[in-house]
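Progress report, Aim 2. The chain analyzed during this reporting quarter is listed below.
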Amino acid sequence: MREPFHFPLVRICVVAAAVLLLSACAGDNGPDKDALPPDQPVNALYTKGTDALDQGKYEDAAKQFAEVERQHPYSKWATHAQIMEAYAYYQNLEYDKAIATLDDFIQLHPGNTDTPYAYYLRAECNYERIADVTRDQTATREALRQFHTVIDRYPATDYAKDAALKISLINDHLAGAEMDIGRWYEGKHLYIAAIGRFHDVVKKYQTTSHVPEALERLVECYVALGIMDEAKKDAAVLGYNYPGSDWYRSAYDLLTSKGAAPDIKPKT
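Predicted structure tokens for the chain:
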């Protein structure tokens, strides 16, 4: 974890010792390439950071903002520089570094005015790493959890409004991932496993666009297993809620072909 605060006396001693060491070695080996750069005015460092951001030099920007913290840990600039450092990492697609920096900020400054944004940007870092529905969804679920945290902690902010929108998109994505697995199971004739996935979509992701297909797939699976009562129940739910959808027409035609036509006819 980053430790941005140092005792002044310790800092003076360390700098003095470094100067003496460099003086002793300069005659033999020349300047120490690993020596820290000399302190610069805080506003100059911060301006270098913002200029680098404007130019798209995100790695350089992160370094400049880190120097603000290192060289001027007690200044009013240091706290905001930490947020800017995280933002530079985020822009450079270095999400792990951004998250680590934001975690430090949240722990050190829980009541700061920038803390709501820190929570939001941390969620955004995971949101940006969401993979397609055929891949691992760890980042997706972490983004979902963190956006909920933004809403719970800061419900009256614009961050919460955007978080709510992102949550809706994430739920649709997670439902799509469940559907992809369910279709695979169904294709392998593993109907019980497929039914579990499709039921999860219907129960957990009721407001997503995947529900009509999930209900139709349930009808297919129950028909394949010969469990017609369950097939008719799911078809009835599908017909009541989505009577004009192609998914209900498919379910209706399938049950009709088995002599179990639903009561609700598809709307044209």
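The chain has three domains: 1-14+39-109, 113-188, 210-268. Residues 1-31 have pLDDT under 50 and may be disordered. These observations will guide the mutagenesis work planned for the next reporting period.
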